[in-house]
Amino acid sequence: MLLKDIPTAHDIEKAEERIENYIHRTPVFTSSQINEIVGLKVYFKTENLQKVGAFKMRGASNAVLSLKKEQLKKGVATHSSGNHAQALALAAKLSKIPAYIVMPQNAPDVKVAAVRQYGAEVIFCEANLEARESTLREVVSKTGATFIHPYDNYDVIAGQATAAKELIEDTDHLNGIFSPIGGGGLMSGTLLSAQYFGNKMAVYGAEPKGADDAYRSWKAGERILMKNPATIADGLRTSLGERNFPIIQKYVKDIITVSDAEIVEAMKMIFQYLKLVVEPSGAVPFASLLKVKNEFKNKKIGVILCGGNVDLAKLPF
């Protein structure tokens, strides 16, 4: 995949205009208590307060709104463990088109319920990538719907990039941004916005140790697919995308991996000091910053809280 094909600054600006009435411009939160504890100024981009409770609404909306009229008639389809599923379902509902969502059998109940509430048809499959993809092919063949990939799609990446663009605009001279890596849609979008709108600001990837394919791929210089991920951060269990990896490989400053225990501790701090509900995946960037905080003494760091769709009946603390 060639870097010449990636979204440009203009593409991201057009995406921002396109989705403006479909998303929230989420606020940036700070906490003097957290700043004192970590020894730096942390600016939290609260995408857990985004529509459907996650940044995914940005990319899904941009992808749907970029489709041709003929494509819209037959609707859209995807495979997702939850947040992209909800986002695409809502984007489809707002555009008055059908949506078909392939979800693994172990997807959180709260996310399955939300997808159905937005009017999409849910098709279950085994909890592995091969089953997701084969089931999706059957759905697309049957319905003629357009596949909107959760992250390996340039329209999706351009939409996700708007979160970091807003964070950069709403803060004063950040020294860096911490963003999570699952499939790489938000991460690659964050990197592009940092390059185009943040004066090539440093961006740090955050990943669970139990799903560290991006870290291993970055170190190896080639994409290594995920096998049997084991982490409470269910939104980050996916393999790094083909279109996402070259962007990450070229621009990421570092990738920090964290344990489930570190993720839970970060969740607790966010609940306690920010009074915000975040899912485990949403806490991974802050967990990563906590792990390396001594490297950023007295700096200004942005942290993207990517989602808040936690099952409150199954809190890990």
UniProtKB/TrEMBL annotation:
Cofactor section: pyridoxal 5'-phosphate
Secreted as UniProt keyword: no
Gene3D superfamilies: 3.40.50.1100
Protein keywords: Pyridoxal phosphate
Domain annotation Tryptophan synthase beta chain-like PALP: ranges: 20-307
Highest taxon of the lineage: Bacteria
Database matches in InterPro entries: TrpB-like_PALP, TrpB-like_PALP_sf
Keyword Transferase: no
Protein name: Serine/threonine dehydratase
